[in-house]
Amino acid sequence: MPTKRLTPQQASIKIKAYCAYQERCHHEVRQKLYGYGLYSQQVDQLIADLIEQNYLNEERFARLFAGGKFRMKSWGRIKITQELKLRKVSAYNIRMAMKEIEPEAYHETLQKLAEKKWAELKGKRIEKTAKTTRYLMQKGFELPLIQDIVGALP
């Protein structure tokens, strides 16, 4: 809790800058506003204002988050979904976010990751299969897809 509470007007200015810097989810913004020492009713009003002024849009956040994590960190759908749930994003917005990931690009990324991991590993086929599968599951890819791709590796 800050040493000095912010007025709703001061908090509004700060939170707009916070939201303008990068996309935020509602939960993140709500926590930040409570950190400014605001009360529940004030927080709700400020969030409503931010949505109205298009500073805050959870669908936009979810789409950008999913697309970014897939492209930059090569995360799979499962991991992205879990992260969005942690940020209390609605199921509808999570479904919309998953549409950002093209099926062809998803499969291609999974294939590249599998081939790269496979090439790094030494040992028997069964050990390489297990380690590659575990690695891809940690990245958040679905087991049936992993098994198809890993099974086809030389």
TrEMBL record:
Residue span(s) of domain RecX third three-helical: 106-149
Task: Name any GO cellular component annotation.
Answer: cytoplasm
What are the RecX second three-helical domain coordinates in residue numbering? 57-98
Keyword annotations of the record: Cytoplasm
GO terms under biological process: regulation of DNA repair
Record keywords: Cytoplasm included?
A: yes
**Presence of keyword Magnesium:** no
Annotated localization: Cytoplasm
- Mostly located where? cytoplasm
Q: What InterPro entries does the entry give? A: RecX_HTH_2nd, RecX_HTH_3rd, Regulatory_RecX, WH-like_DNA-bd_sf
* Family per similarity comment: Belongs to the RecX family.
**Annotated protein name in UniProt:** Regulatory protein RecX
